[in-house]
Design a protein that fits this description.
Layout: E1 2-4, E2 13-16, E3 23-26, E4 40-44, E5 51-55, E6 73-75, E7 82-83, E8 85-89, E9 92-97, E10 103-107, H1 114-124, E11 130-137, E12 143-149, E13 157-163, H2 171-183, H3 189-197, E14 198-203, H4 208-213, H5 238-250, E15 254-261, E16 268-270, H6 280-296, H7 319-327, E17 330-337, H8 353-370
Parallel strand pairs: 3-5, 13-14, 13-15, 15-17
Antiparallel strand pairs: 1-4, 2-3, 4-10, 5-9, 6-7, 6-10, 8-9, 11-12, 12-14, 16-17
Helix pairs in contact: 2-8, 3-8, 6-8
């Protein structure tokens, strides 16, 4: 029996793995940071053997409340991920399963590998609608990929979509793939109408280094990119800096930043209500977008989410807040769960890559409905 994590997005340390009924593990911290919660590893040589794996340092994770009512995911083909028995007690996370194959992969959420990212970029660049632009490099020297979809024209709106600032929130890039797949579908009338009236700038992975390293929340240097938007630098956060430089050239009419939330079992949108100068008109646009999205996708809801910040209290280092402050645009953060969706549960897979992709695709319906209001 072996446990390994030396691969794209892998993360685990083995303390003891001699007895399948008492495998002891720890999650590694992000490099240069105290953040940790993402795990992804392969268990080999335990086919048909009941296994009990205990993550001993779960209590010190970034969001220990995220372990309540949580179930890890597993896969033997790395395509279909299903939930496994998971309990959190006395500060330890215990995973129980009996593998039905010689190798099984276990993760915090269905991984979105850098290999899949490259495959997404390769597929999109062959569309007549899309253009690939490498707008910068990460600290580890990886490309920052931006896809431009649509042709600029008089009166057209400019829409920016970013995903996966926090690399462990893989559902964000799954959602970006779903959005892109629909946007590039020549037969989709919603996409066709949108591209007649808007140009999209999409960064499907804002944090390639953290993604490959198996980080939860930070880049190669341990910097939380979603606290860098008011001070992004080439030394600490070139990923954000290069995006902001391009935004300065294009302007922004709508900004959507896609994330995952460890604790809340809901899909919801957080707005920029606390930004100085946030107006009733801004509120109407934000409420209108959420209402439209809820109509088009029942997995989305508006009852549960983050508390709304008091006027003028917003942290401008956060992407959504900075975008409203700097560009005066409709700016939003889409949050998806690591757990199952409480309002539309699916017990086998829970919240999944497929459902994330569908919610990403549904953004186009809400964007189209609100486009004339931007």
């Amino acid at each position: 029996m072996r446990i390994s994590s030396v691969f794209d997005s892998g993360n685990i340390s083995v303390i003891l793995a001699k007895d399948p009924s008492n495998i002891r593990l720890e999650i590694k911290k992000d490099n240069g940071s105290d953040f940790y919660q993402w795990f992804h590893f392969r268990l080999s040589g335990a086919n048909g053997t009941p296994c009990r794996l205990v993550i001993e340092n779960a209590a010190g994770a970034a969001y220990p409340g995220g372990w309540e009512n949580y179930q890890a995911v597993a896969s033997t083909d790395r395509e279909t991920w299903y939930r496994i028995e998971t309990t959190y007690e006395d500060g330890q996370l215990t995973l129980s399963l009996t593998p039905d194959a010689d190798a099984i992969w276990i993760a915090y959420f269905a991984p979105y590998s850098m290999a899949r990212h490259d495959a997404l970029i390769a597929a999109c660049q062959h569309s007549d609608r899309a253009k690939l632009d490498v707008i910068g490099q990460t600290l580890d020297g990886r490309n920052m990929d931006r896809l431009i979809v649509g042709e600029p024209g008089d009166g057209k709106k400019t829409i920016w979509v970013t995903a996966r600032q926090h690399p462990g929130e893989t559902m964000a890039e799954w959602a970006a793939e779903g959005l892109l797949e629909r946007l590039l579908d020549d037969a989709d009338p919603v996409a066709r109408d949108l591209l007649d009236r808007a140009v999209f700038h999409i960064v499907p992975n804002m944090n390639p280094d953290g993604s490959f390293r198996g980080h939860l929340r930070t880049n190669a240097k341990g910097i939380n990119l979603n606290r860098e938007w008011d001070k992004a630098s080439l030394e600490n956060s070139p990923e954000v800096r290069c995006v902001l430089d391009e935004m300065a050239k294009t302007g922004v009419d709508l900004f959507l930043d896609m994330h995952g939330d460890e604790a809340l079992p809901y899909n919801f949108i957080a707005g920029a209500e606390g930004v100085p100068g946030f107006t009733p008109e801004d509120q109407n646009k934000l409420d209108g977008y959420k209402t439209e999205l809820m109509m088009f996708n029942p997995d989305f809801q508006t009852e549960h989410g983050y508390p709304v910040g008091a006027p003028g209290s917003a942290n401008l280092s956060v992407a959504t807040n900075w975008m409203r402050h700097a560009f005066g645009c409709l700016a939003m953060t889409l949050e998806m769960p690591f757990k199952d969706s409480a309002i539309t549960p699916e017990p086998v897979q829970g919240w999944s890559p497929e459902r994330s992709m569908k919610l990403g695709a549904s953004q186009l319906d809400a964007m189209r409905a609100m486009l004339d209001e931007l």
